[in-house]
Design a protein that fits this description.
This protein is α/β, with parallel strands linked by helices. It has helices at residues 5-29, 43-53, 77-84, 99-105, 117-120, 135-152, 157-170, 172-185, 198-203, 211-218, 225-236, 252-264, 281-297; strands at 36-42, 57-63, 88-91, 113-116, 189-192, 207-209, 243-246, 268-271. The two termini are 31 Å apart. Residues 1-10 and 20-32 have low confidence and may be disordered.
Length: 298
Amino acid sequence: MEWDTATIKLSNLRFLMLAALAFMMGAMHGAEAATLDVVAAENFYGDIAQQIGGTNVAITSILSNPDQDPHEFEAGSSAARQLANAALVIYNGLDYDPWVPKLLAASSSPTRQTIVVAELLHKKAGDNPHIWYDPEAATALAKRLSELLARRDPDHAVAHRYHLAIFEQSLKPLADQISKMRRKYAGTPVTATEPVFGYMADALGLEMRNRRFQLAVMNDTEPSAADIAKFETDLRSRAVKVLICNRQTSDALTRRMREIAQQSGVPVVGVTETEPAGKDYQQWMRSQLDAIDRALAG
């Protein structure tokens, strides 16, 4: 879409007006307003909540260790207390974090609200649970957060809307990067040890191979001999241009596939299920896209 100079100036003016209103409202009500306790099961959802809520929310993210396999997480008393005391809880759904609804059911609260991100995207049981790699997920969550926070904290509704506008603006470079890479690489065959990057691979138009193998690994079952053989053939014959691996899991079979890829000259790109320290959601997504871009270009 082409924007003329007048449109850009009006857009900038709108941002400045919202910023001024947000500042004034915050100054007027900041002294007496209490922060809202928000608990996110995953730290990337917590990061988005922080970007929308700003100083008016106190964020706790339960899964935040980049060296931990989220699928092996066992919730303890600390997670139970955090969820019990939360005013707002955000979790993934699709049985990715099944401990959350169980703990919430054990500590009912008439005022606590929940956001299940899978429901925002109209996902159903059996769908790939790694929905934060869907380019629509961040925007859907941010909009829902802005609505809920504005209702619970009307004194800062203008600030929440301003933060939403800034957040949506910050996602545009990511959307542009996805569009550019799709034009370059649509139809390129790639493979992965797990379907972690699946939604983003679809957004890029990549041809994802060996999906049955990936589902078996994700579900902690053994892939069939035929699926293993097909995966190995794709790597040895270089029928795929990149192997995408989950950095947070390591078993004998995935290590074997990485070794075959390296021996065959197929680039290996690691992705994660946890936002790394020192990066926000936007930087995390773009850095992984950069790695895929370099691998495909090479």
